[in-house]
Design goal:
The structure holds two protein chains of two kinds. Chain A is an alpha/beta fold. Chain A has helices spanning 20-33, 40-53, 110-124, 127-135, 139-147, and strands at 7-14, 57-59, 62-63, 66-69, 76-86, 97-106. In chain B, strand 5 and strand 6 (532-537) form a beta hairpin. The chains are: A alpha/beta, B mainly alpha. The interface between A and B is medium-sized, with 17 and 18 residues.
Chain lengths: 152, 560
């Protein structure tokens, strides 16, 4: 999958908020205002329900909140950077989360869901890229870094 | 006024048109069968009882003319029965039981003959004070007594899905002891003819005729079987195969009537030929023909009942009939037991076989009618009335005693197919596993469940224990590309919506039909409140059923 069609510059954010609830809401809000999702409240309920089952903070400062959601027909993702870190994310390694990748796929896109998760994980495994992302000054730069080829 | 009379006339029995009568007979006959089945009496007895009520002994709705009109159907039924019996006689089985068959066959047939002949001769000597007359009567009734009705007996076996040594022995015997009965009858007719002084053919001539009847029937039947197996080789459509098979069976009936051969023996030879020389093709053929038989059987047995006239019984006939019944039952018991002991048959055969040999019908009545035409009254008339009376009695007690015997021998329900089991089973019994996956369980935990259990589909429940979806092996497979994620992916992330639910008390057949309709190989079973209690998977359910079928088969094999 081409990440250029899944991420959009307006959804690549330097997060203002630093609590989990507020940071996630900020990202959902950006997806709504960009017109990729109609009903923000509904999506929020789904995202938080999933977080209740188990936190999506998977360590190394990364979190991947993800849901299959009936409100979208094609996969869409948002990336939020919090340089100082979200302390209350309850990551598996108890470290603050600096990179949040929110992934929303259509209700029946089971395979795309897993593939997209795997593809993004592959990108974020690279610690240089993670550092560049955290240091990025703008949404445009974040977008370039996450959708760019190779390990620059 | 005239029109009303006309209308009334059209409802009087003699004006029933044949098709209308057929409808009544089939409808009431099967209703009677069902009723008797409910009270645990073989349905054959129900058919016959309805026949008695409708026929000569009862309301005479079925007139003598109608019985004659419908004679063709009785021949058809007998031919079908012969054909189906022939299909059961696999050479392999006969080889296994061959020695047993021969001994028991000879002993049970001769046992009945000797005992009935002695008792009747003795009894009628006191009545008539005429040793020639008594001896002729004894020999003829003795010969007739050796026959056993294949139809009523095998119908009970098929109804109860029996399998085992007793079933095999009974099937072999009832098919073949008509041959012995014919032989004895031919001999008895010659001797009786000489005693009474009627000019029938000599002993030599009647033996030749008998040889022709038996040999010719086997030859014609085998030729027809050969023809049919060649003919159906080019066809795979069920309907064409069925039509060819029925056509050939009807041809056999016609030919045997023209050539003076034995219809049952001829049809049996055809069935025997097919099952042994074209086993693969004929398996389907026998299934098709079997599905066609029920209405013909119902008709046949109702007609057997309708023909009987209990009103013609008088003291003399009653006494001879009693001697016949006692002698025949005793002779069959003695002979069958002795034969079983000599041939070292399994215990179940020795103990319960005699109960299966009591029925008499077509062949016995047929022979008595021949005797009635060959010998002048009173001899001829007495034989017809005695045999009609005894047939009436044994037709009613024969089938239940077969049922008793196979039940006691433990052979009931062992000849069951997967489809029978599906129809009989309850959906919830087919679920082997009631494991549920919680939506918060990780892929690692789910893999654990899949790897330690047999099923390929599991329901996913939420905190309130409500089923919110399912996970199949396919969903799990999709996660293999992201194995590093498996500690973080949950059932919630990979489950799919549930398609198809069915109440847990539905029959297996209903559940399987629903799966087919949904194009899924699983469905969810729900309790009365609509909560999922487990997933029914076609694969595991079929496995369970075929294990059960195999177990029943092993049980049948273990009987002997």
């Amino acid at each position: 999958m081409d990440l250029k069609n899944i991420f959009h510059e307006e959804n690549c954010l330097l997060l203002k908020e630093s609590s989990k609830t507020e940071a996630l809401s900020e990202m959902i809000e950006s997806l709504c205002s960009a017109g990729y999702v109609d009903n923000g409240e509904d999506l929020q309920r789904e995202i938080f329900y999933r977080e209740q089952l188990m936190s999506t903070g998977i360590g190394m400062g990364i979190a991947v909140p993800h849901v299959r959601y009936k409100g979208v027909t094609e996969p869409v993702a948002a990336l939020g950077i919090s340089a100082k870190g979200v302390e209350d994310y309850e990551s598996i390694d108890n470290e603050p989360v600096t990179l949040i990748v929110m992934i929303i796929v259509g209700e029946n896109q089971h395979k795309q869901h897993i593939r997209l998760l795997s593809q993004i994980m592959e990108k974020l495994k690279d610690s240089n890229r993670r550092e560049s992302l955290i240091a990025a000054p703008s949404g445009a730069e974040i977008y370039r870094l996450i959708t760019g080829e190779g390990n620059d | 006024m005239t029109s009303i009379t006309h209308l009334l006339q059209s409802f009087s029995p003699s004006h029933f048109n044949t098709v209308f009568l057929l409808g009544i007979v089939l409808f009431l006959g099967s209703a009677g069968g069902r009723l008797f089945q409910k009270i645990k009496i073989p349905q054959v007895v129900g058919y016959i009882a309805i026949g008695i009520i409708l026929g000569q002994s009862g309301f005479r709705f079925i007139s003598r003319e109608s019985i004659t009109d419908l004679q063709g159907f009785s021949s058809f039924a007998l031919a079908l029965i012969g054909f189906m019996i022939g299909g059961e006689l696999k050479i392999q089985t006969i080889k296994k039981y061959g020695n047993q068959f021969t001994w028991i066959l000879l002993m049970e047939a001769m046992g009945a003959f000797v005992v009935v002949a002695s008792l009747v001769t003795f009894g009628s000597y006191f009545l008539f004070k005429d040793i020639r007359m008594a001896l002729a009567l004894g020999l003829l009734l003795g010969a007739i007594s050796s026959a056993t009705a294949p139809a009523a007996t095998t119908d009970v076996l098929w109804e109860n899905k029996t399998r085992g040594p007793l079933t095999t022995t009974v099937l072999g015997l009832v098919a073949m002891d008509d041959g012995v009965a014919l032989l004895l009858f031919a001999l008895a007719t010659s001797v009786a003819g000489a005693l009474i002084g009627t000019s029938t053919e000599g002993l030599g001539m009647s033996l030749i005729l008998l040889l022709w009847e038996i040999g010719g029937s086997i030859l014609v039947g085998s030729l027809m079987g050969w023809g049919l197996s060649k003919l159906i080789r080019g066809y795979i459509e069920d309907d064409k195969i069925l039509v060819f098979s029925l056509g050939i069976i009807l041809l056999i009936i016609g030919l045997t009537q023209i050539l003076d051969l034995d219809t049952i023996l001829c049809a049996m030879s055809m069935g025997f030929f097919m099952v042994n020389f074209s086993p693969k093709k004929s398996k389907n053929l026998f299934n098709l023909v079997e599905k066609f038989t029920p209405p013909i059987y119902v008709l046949f047995f109702v007609m057997v009942g309708a023909k009987m006239d209990i009103r013609s019984i008088n003291g003399l006939v009653a006494l001879l009939a009693a001697l016949f019944l006692v002698g025949r039952t005793g002779g069959k018991f003695l002979g069958a037991t002795l034969g079983s002991v000599i041939s070292k048959a399994p215990e179940t055969v020795r103990r319960y076989l005699p109960f299966c040999l009591l029925s008499q019908a077509g062949v016995a009545v047929g022979l008595s009618v021949i005797a009635g035409q060959t010998f002048p009254d009173p001899l001829g008339g007495i034989i017809v009335m005695v045999v009609t009376t005894t047939t009436f009695v044994v037709q009613l007690i024969g089938p239940p005693s077969v049922k008793y015997a196979v039940d006691r021998a433990g052979e009931t329900g062992l000849n069951i197919t997967e489809d029978d089991l599906i129809a009989k089973s309850v959906a919830s019994d087919l679920v082997s596993n009631r494991t549920m996956i919680r939506e918060g369980q990780t892929i690692e935990q789910i893999l654990q469940i899949f790897s330690t259990q047999d099923d390929l589909v599991y329901p996913v429940i939420n905190r309130d224990k409500k089923v919110i979806g399912i996970i199949t092996i396919d969903n799990l497979k999709d996660t293999f590309i992201a194995s590093e994620l498996s500690p973080f992916l949950l059932a919630h992330d990979i489950m799919i919506p549930l398609v198809g639910t069915c109440p847990e008390d539905a029959t297996g057949a209903e559940a399987f039909a629903l799966m087919k309709k949904n194009n899924r190989d699983y469905l969810s079973l729900t309790d009365k409140e609509g909560n999922c209690v487990g997933i029914l998977e076609e694969r595991t359910a079929r496995k369970k059923l075929s294990l059960k079928v195999m177990e029943l088969q092993r049980k049948a094999d273990a009987l002997g």
